[in-house]
Fold this sequence. Notes:
TIM Barrel, Rossmann fold, globular, 20 helices, alpha/beta, Immunoglobulin-like, seven-stranded mixed beta sheet, homodimer
Amino acid sequence: MTTGGFTLPGEAGHEELTLRLAERWGADVIRDSDGTTLSREILDADYGIYSTICLIREDRDWALANQRLLQQNFLGSFPVVADGDVVRIDPLAGYSTDQFVLNDWDGVELWQVFDRTSGTEVPRESWRLVDGTVVVDGTVPGHSYTVNVLVMRVWEEISMYNHVTNDWGDKPRLMALEPRHPAVAQRLEEWLERWCVEHPETTVVRFTSLFYNFAWFWGSDPDLPHVYADWGSYDFTVNPVALREFNAGRAVPITSEDFVDAGRYTSTHNPPSPIYREWMEFTMDFVLALGRRLVDVVHRHGKQAYVFYDDSWVGLEPYSPRFPEFGFDGLIKAVFSGYEARLNAGVDVPVHELRLHPYLFPVDLEGKPTFVPGGDPTADARAYWTVMRRALLRARIDRIGLGGYLSLVEPFEDFQAYVAEVADEHRLVRDLHLAGPPAVAPVRVGVATCWGRLRSWTCSGHLHENPELSLLHVIESLAGLPFDVEFLALDDLAADGVPDGIDVLVNAGPAGSSWSGGPVWSRPELVAAVTRFVAAGGGLVGVESPSALDRAQAPGRLDRFQLAPVLGVDVDAGDRHVLARRRFDVDEAGPAARSILAGVDVATALAGVRPQPGTRLARSGVAVLAATDGVPTVTATSFGAGRAVYLADHRHGADAARLLSNALWWAAGREPSGYATSDPRLDVAHFPASGTVLVASSADVPVTGSVLRDGEVVAEVSLAPAGLAVLDAAALDG
Amino acid sequence: MTTGGFTLPGEAGHEELTLRLAERWGADVIRDSDGTTLSREILDADYGIYSTICLIREDRDWALANQRLLQQNFLGSFPVVADGDVVRIDPLAGYSTDQFVLNDWDGVELWQVFDRTSGTEVPRESWRLVDGTVVVDGTVPGHSYTVNVLVMRVWEEISMYNHVTNDWGDKPRLMALEPRHPAVAQRLEEWLERWCVEHPETTVVRFTSLFYNFAWFWGSDPDLPHVYADWGSYDFTVNPVALREFNAGRAVPITSEDFVDAGRYTSTHNPPSPIYREWMEFTMDFVLALGRRLVDVVHRHGKQAYVFYDDSWVGLEPYSPRFPEFGFDGLIKAVFSGYEARLNAGVDVPVHELRLHPYLFPVDLEGKPTFVPGGDPTADARAYWTVMRRALLRARIDRIGLGGYLSLVEPFEDFQAYVAEVADEHRLVRDLHLAGPPAVAPVRVGVATCWGRLRSWTCSGHLHENPELSLLHVIESLAGLPFDVEFLALDDLAADGVPDGIDVLVNAGPAGSSWSGGPVWSRPELVAAVTRFVAAGGGLVGVESPSALDRAQAPGRLDRFQLAPVLGVDVDAGDRHVLARRRFDVDEAGPAARSILAGVDVATALAGVRPQPGTRLARSGVAVLAATDGVPTVTATSFGAGRAVYLADHRHGADAARLLSNALWWAAGREPSGYATSDPRLDVAHFPASGTVLVASSADVPVTGSVLRDGEVVAEVSLAPAGLAVLDAAALDG
Lengths: 734, 734
């Protein structure tokens, strides 16, 4: 057993358990959690101490006394259909008035009324605000009208969620302050200063993010309790102070509609407008400036500052090039999936820590039992760990930890034992990384989206929240594969071409989304850049709707997939209804099929895949490697000196990940080299500096399989469910 | 047994059979068919004689000698991706050179070259024609280029199809002449004149349509044998003579791209452009002028002129207001579905005749045996007849008939007997119509599309060719329901509102199609007109993607269905990915459900229905009557004084037709009145003038059910499979 790199949630009143498990799990740090405190005995036990603070909502009394300093946002009303020449709109109808209060004293000049039938703004002189109701004159019967208004948020959303979900009755409702007000910024700084003085034993201040929550609009209709939510949206950074500062001196000001966007708001899934990108930069600059002051306070008190990438991370942007300027000493992330571990590991910060699941709560997020009779927390922990460990083989994570009520684990001896095992495994893998990085495949992958590097290793939110998003499954597969992965912005590709060093470009996601790209594909220089890249020998893997444009966005174009000439595949969006489809045979035995389907159980790999019903083959040279109901699901084609693979969809799993891996090797025009395994459920990583080869099983059954090097079998391994084998590379050479 | 109203295909060499069946089936007319002739004995047997001619391709020798007078069209080449600054395009690469020959001697100034990556035309000075190859200079590497060219068609497509399908070897290839050339028009007229002289016994010249085939482009790639086909497209009416005449004096000329449309061509399924509509009118005027001259020739010879609505019907347009000016004495239509019978019945022409199926051929269109061992032509005939008879209950068809080789029926005594039965049934129903029209429901239905009246009772082609087209299923259901149906143009609704007398508006079809409407829904006046219509008490039934616009076509709009405020339902095209869905319960017992689901086996009615995965409920007042996999498939809502029903899809069948019927009654705000049946497989029609009620079964099993009047049971009937009951209305009163 080794020690260190483990953060244990302590619990006052359970000192003996806390200290016993701290030793058993090799913990070097004890933390508090939501709802728990640390007692003097724990604080004095010579462990590092993390203290959690959520600065923006900590000081409820002051917030209550300064309600005009709370956070705001734009809200688009629900539409009202005119039945005469006057329409009255209650802006908050349909929204939770526990969350929102109309701000009718500051910034009404920023409101906008729209005729949503014509899509045009109603002139300011045609509407007025009367006792909280917007009265629109000169309306056209049959047209729908909405108003975008500024609202105060009088209940912080996480507090609201916990309160409502747990039926907390009259427990106080927390409020989030708007730090753009200088009085608030000063108050936060002073509060933190005092807090540091009062908590000398804390070694690490664990900021539960910083200022701005992700967007989450609650509804009043019991059938529509949540109107809008997005983990990466900056909707909650809006307020008159910020708007006026942003617009000062601008020829074209930012408007309410730049945020409301006809009810789409600034969802991360949609391509961002140029002005919204500027707003994000503007907000990041502010969050950085104030955030750095707060980190300085912590540092002045001789403590470290870690930040938890969580609810209020907006503006923080760990993948912004300026993130290191915050001076954070560590980044902590709660993780369900491997890609979230890669997100954390890839950030430029000294310490990377994961908060593992299960959370030490009686039930999980979906209400299923965990640490109560009927729960099996050990099985849960094993499932989460095997998902996570794939990613940890590829990238260094310095620390892991748990959260919640430690006392709940007392009756679960097997859980206690399993966590000890996990902690040891983690330290083993971490130490290998520290000795020298694992070997990577000689195929560098560029995932191209509208967001590029800023949204590396994420598509906004957890996999279980976006189960249908193909790109999220792609990055989850990539998280455990031995390829170097870069996240590229489509705008940059259009401007500068595909960067040197990229071997295979990936474009994936629904048509029109920020992930596949949307309207950026109407830029001929982007299409030409990718086409030339492949023609010159590059690889392309397109998933779902790569390079897709709507017909109205692509006048004069032949295809919906702008890369159809390269992919050999297109989709008919209905406007080519009568075009006869190209016939095809499924080619399971040709050279491309032998490479791409190698070692893959195709039925398993494609389980759950939804083929695009309008798929048509744009070129006769394309080989269909798999099809469902007569619709191609996997195709491969050569184009110039390069190659392209199309996957109608991708649902992560061992076989699907192997299929993707094969596709990347094939598209790169390379034979797989380095270490590999015969069974897709076995992941392998080679740490040359340590002379160690790790083989990890993601299966919940025993697996026996071969380890291969450059295509030759060098060992056979038999792993227990979720097992890990540590092999000596030198012995394999023998 | 009655006689008349029946056209029998005679066959020389089988005179006894011909005359025996003519008597058995009550025929009054004998016709020739493709491949058969009538002998002197038949011609002299005192029957009316139909003679089939397909004028445009009859005179092969003259066509062969005048190949510059053949028909032409624009063809868009397949794209070529530039790998340097010059691109060479073989315009016909990928197309059948048996069908197409490049016209490089007349009209090259009408060709256009396009950069399909930017969607822009390449200036004329940047390309040249060199030995049949188009050489484009100054190309951008990675961009795709195409050329639109004029081609001659050296093989008429129906001849081509029969030839290729039946392996006819060196049997002559027929060619279609272009009647825009005055020499051709004169030749056709002279040829017909001579033909009439030489065929004194012919009483009816049966024009197998007139001049222009529907568009059908053959490919050279065995995997893409048909590149494009559309039954209603005017692509084959194009040639330099017509183009120059059309463009003379026009500020903005029509171009090749107005026809090619980036490879979409002028498919009937896509919304027509204004200039293409003008081209259609221009062509109709020409077809009418020359067609009338030909009809006059026939009339001068004391014969009648019937026209067969078939392969070469383009420009004929039976639903054009000018169609009666042709002077045709009858319209014949080959029919697979009830809606095709309604299409025929609704045309303003003296005689309406149907060519029933099966065709007297050894095998059917799909190659399945018919009049050979293994075939069951009687079962086929019964199935077709029950489909057709639903429509015949509602609208008068004067004549029916068969086509093909009569000798083939000789061994099939049961078929001979069944046709006698069908002929009698038809005469019975026809005579009831002649005595006075059947009662119609007091709910007038308006089906609104881009095409309006011009494409009444069709969506271009047969149901088996467009099995996924929801509107086609809707009109097939409507064909046998007792509602008056009008086909309305969405442009007209925008200009003039919903016409008086319409009770329920139907809008149905895929998003962006000419059927649901496409971009016309960006016109606020259209949305307002329909919204006001429903608010004032009208009904709306939306199917699949009613009033749908793409996001790029609807800036500033809240919804994809522009009528979402009325329907209470919208679809998320992906750009509202994170919006929480409105929760709903399926309400199978509320008032709307009781009316709309009454008497319907919902599972059967919705079998095969594909719910729209992105369906969201736009209003909380909407009732979900049925859902599949959590996605609403049938909803109902009240809006103002009116009502709206949404059906995610519609697949015709007895229960689905009943569901649609119920939806129309409910949307109209009326209780069903008049005659009805308890079992959706029983259709009922009341002929007040005759005092007769017909009950027809569309089932292939015996059915017992009730006949109702104004909701009260007035009789019980038991029908054999496909049976017909004739009831005395007076007795039902008793």
